[in-house]
Specification:
single chain, 195 residues, 3-stranded antiparallel sheet, 8 strands, 14% strand
Length: 195
């Protein structure tokens, strides 16, 4: 979940009258569902629904106390000022990271089926995303023969020669004649900014 989405979930959690009343009640003391329900004259199912929303947003937490689950406010969250809550270090970077993640998931969905690579993407950008995922099967500080590389890659696609070549071209694997190894400093997707 992106930083923007977390902050949005937090702010959405405050945007409800019942939730504000529940938070106010919990600021006075820890309570369980039935107590809150009686105090605020709300159905227990309604209180439970709102408590789940507040807990998911990180505003409250629960703990077991004998037979009950007791809810408490996270003071650290409520003691923040609004500026701290909405501040994002670099909103453009966060938005781009989220777009990249969504795009990556779309590429995986389009090119993988039952863990197998249906085809090697023609687009450099898409192919790089796939290759970066496949290289995770290789350990750092380990040398691989060509046959060992082929054994790893054939799980994904039969065209192991093309996959090997692309991985070396993209500097994900390095090689000397007959020996391959995983590159430690994997570059960022060089094709992302071009599309």
């Amino acid at each position: 979940m992106s930083e923007v989405q977390k902050k949005l979930n937090l702010l959405k959690a405050f945007a409800d009258k019942s939730r504000i009343l529940i938070i106010n009640a919990l600021m006075k003391k820890s309570m369980y569902v039935e107590e809150i329900s009686t105090l605020l004259d709300l159905a227990e199912s309604t209180v439970s629904f709102h408590l789940k929303k507040l807990e998911k947003a990180g505003i409250i937490y629960s703990e077991r106390s004998q037979y009950y689950i007791v809810y408490n406010v996270k003071d650290k969250i409520l003691n923040q000022n609004l500026k701290d809550i909405i501040y994002i270090k670099n909103p453009d970077e966060a938005a781009q990271k989220q777009r990249m993640e969504e795009y990556k998931n779309k590429v995986f969905k389009a090119f993988f089926e039952y863990g197998k690579l249906k085809q090697i993407p023609m687009s450099n950008k898409k192919r790089y995303i796939i290759l970066k995922e496949l290289v995770k099967d290789f350990e750092f500080d380990k040398k691989y023969t060509e046959d060992e590389v082929n054994t790893i890659l054939v799980k994904y696609n039969d065209d192991v020669a093309a996959l090997r070549r692309y991985m070396v071209e993209e500097k994900l694997l390095d090689r000397t004649p007959g020996v391959y190894w995983r590159v430690k400093d994997i570059p960022k997707n060089p094709y992302w900014k071009n599309n």
